[in-house]
Amino acid sequence: MAIGYCRQLGFTNMVSDGGYGITLDGKLREIRTLPYRKCLDVIDECKAKGIAWAVQIDDSDTRLAPDDRFLNETHDIYMKTKTVPGLNVREYPAIYKIYIAGRYPVEKEISSLQSLPHCRYHDEYLFVEPADKAYGIRKMVSLLGGSTRDVIVFGDGLNDLSMFTGEWPCVAMGNAVPELKEKADFVTKNAADDGIFHACRHLGLI
């Protein structure tokens, strides 16, 4: 889903999928999946507790759900949702993401979820997805033969905490969550107010 924006902006290299996807020279070079056994545990617990869920079994814009409950409860159009009646995730060898319907604090009701990275971007459901952006950054720098001394990261959400490691300058947008601002070396203006431009000028890059 991100590659379209990448091409539109004229980039050929990209770190995506929470740090687990590496696109170099316009081609996907690597994409890691979530720990399979732990994913099955989460899905089994959701089933046992009657919590609606959906799953990503490939690198596409479509997730699979065993019934219509996930879509009916979330009304989400972020991705396509395909209903596969009686979906058995054990028929698929890899799991990239899990989506769990429910408002906070449903994430605290699923004990097996605590061993997997997860984040909430919407009130109606949460994402179980990779969260090691620093890994992807280091991998990209290595493939390009560069140095992490040349890295600067920008972020605004909880899913950006994984790259605010102190290895490189960290810039939080003005509209960033408080947790990110606390770890930032510099807090710039809001993204909508040319925050990246303001930060680049502050850092002497332009």
List keywords for this structure.
alpha/beta, 4-stranded antiparallel sheet, 6 helices, Hypothetical Protein, Haloacid Dehalogenase-like Hydrolase, Chain: A, domain 2, 25% helix, 206 residues
Helix content: 25-40%
Number of domains: 3
Number of strands: 12
CATH architecture of the largest domain: 2-Layer Sandwich
Which range does the strand content fall in?
Answer: 15-25%
Order of helices and strands: HEEEHEEHEEEEHEEHEH
Strand ordering within the main sheet: 4-7-9-8
Shape type: globular
Overall SS class: alpha/beta
Mean pLDDT: 95
The first-to-last residue Cα distance is 30 Å
Descriptive overview:
There is one protein chain. With 206 residues, the chain is an alpha/beta fold. It has three domains: 1-31 and 133-145, no CATH class; 36-128, Hypothetical Protein, Haloacid Dehalogenase-like Hydrolase, Chain: A, domain 2 (2-Layer Sandwich); 152-206, no CATH class. The protein is 25% helix and 21% strand. The chain has six helices and twelve strands. It has helices at residues 3-8, 36-49, 69-74, 133-144, 178-183, 195-202, and strands spanning 14-16, 21-24, 27-31, 53-56, 62-65, 80-83, 97-101, 118-119, 125-128, 153-155, 170-172, 186-187. The strands form four sheets. The chain has a four-stranded antiparallel sheet. A three-stranded antiparallel sheet has the order 1-2-3, with helices on one face. It has a three-stranded parallel sheet with strand order 10-11-12. The longest helix has 14 residues, at 36-49. It is globular, with a radius of gyration of 18 Å. The two termini are 30 Å apart. The mean pLDDT is 95.
